[in-house]
Design a protein that fits this description.
alpha/beta, Rossmann fold, Nucleotidyltransferase, domain 5, 13 helices, elongated
Length: 431
Amino acid sequence: MVNYKLLKKQKEFIEIPHEFPLDVAIYQGGFGSGKTWCGSLLGILMAKKYPGSRGLVGAKEYELVRKTTLITYLEHLEQLGYVEDKDYSYNKIDKIIKFKNGSEILFSQLDDEEKFKSLNLHWAEIEEASQIADSSFKQLLGRLRNTYRGDNWIDFRYRLFGHTNPQPNKDWIWKRFVQDKKPNYRLVIAPTTDNTFLPKHFVESLKENYDEDYYRINVLGEFGDYSSGLVVKGFSDENLKHFKYNPDLPIHITCDFNVDPMCWCLAYKDDENVYFFDEIVIENTTTQQCIDEFIRRYPKHKSEIIINGDASGDNRTTQSEYTNYAIIRNALKSYGYNFKFRLRPYNPPILSRIQAFNAKVKNSLGERHLFIDERRCKQLLYNIYNLSFKEGTSIVDVPTFTQIKTNKDFKYLEHPFDAASYLTEFYWKIK
C-alpha cells in the first residue's frame, strides 16, 4: 500500500468547501496535471467512505473510459492494497466494480443518454467533460437521486465531478462554471507547472513546441480565445525571408489536391526549421499538370525530392484511373528524379495541423522556426493574413460558393494552408 501526497489543486478538488447537499466540480488542467488520476481517486474514496453507495464513471465514448479511466481505477486499487476477488470484483461484461462493502462503480458511455437515464446514483464522474454535451451533463444531474443512506453517512453529499483539458472555445463549462456560476459549482484550474512530480525538462519542452496561445490554454489550463480571429497566430515580418534555390538541397513537395485551385507548397527543412520557398497554385487543373509545372521549374534538381501532403491523395479520383500520388511517382520516375514519399495513413484533424503550424510560426518562448519567401509564396501568405475561424468557434471559416462568386480571391483560402500544414504536422506533431 502506498501513501499519496496530493498536489494543492488536487486537494482543493477533492475537499468540499461549502454546506450545500450537492457539490458540482470540474478539474480543468493542463497536460500532465493529474486530472484522471485525481478523479479516479475521488471515485474510490466515495465508494470506500459510503458503503453501499453507487457511482457512475462515464465519457462521451466508452473506449475513452476503457483505455484511460478504468485503467487508472484499477491501478489505484492495486496501489491502495485492494485485492481482486477478495476486496472487490470487476465484471467486464456488465462494466462494473463491486466492493465488499456493497458499493458499486459503473462505467458507461455518455453520448447515449438512454444507457443511464434510469439509474439512481450517489455520485458521477465525467472523463474529458468538455467532450460531452450539456444535455448529458443535465441528465447526470437528474440521476443523483439515490435515497439509500448507510448508518454512518453523517456528512454525505451528492457529487458530480469531472475533469478535462481546457478548450479553446467557451462552451457549457464556461457558461455553468464561470459566466452563470452557482454557489455550489466549483472550477479548479490546475496548471501543468504546479505538478512538482513531473520531470524538470517537461514544461520547458512544452514551451519550445507550443505557440503562446496554445501554451496558455493547454499548459496553464486557462480558458482562451484561441479560436477567435485568424487561424495563424503570431506571424510577423520576422517570418519572411528570401531564399535562393539550391539544387543540392532536398525539396519537400507538400500537396493539397483540390481541383480548383490545386495548391502545392515547396519547402526546405532541417530538424527545427521549415523554409517555404515556392508554391504551385493552378486553377481548374489536374495532378499531372501540377507535377509537369514542377518539372518545368526545376528540371535539373540534383538532390532528393520528398513528397508530403494530403493522405487522401492515395485514393482513386475521378480525374484519372490512377491515384494522385501514382501520377506524381510516374512523372518523377520518368524524368530520373531521386524521390520518396512520406505520408500519414490518414489526415490528422485540422486543429492538430493548425497547432503544429502555429508552434513553428512562433512558440511560447518567442522563437520562430517557420519562414516564407514573400516573392514566390503569395497565396500561402494570403491564407496566413486572411484565413480565420468562425466567430466563437474552432471551425475554420471556409468561403461559400456564393462568396467565391462575388470575390474570386476567396477560392484561394484554405487550400494553400492545408498543403503547408500537412508538412508541419507530419514532422512536428503536437504530442
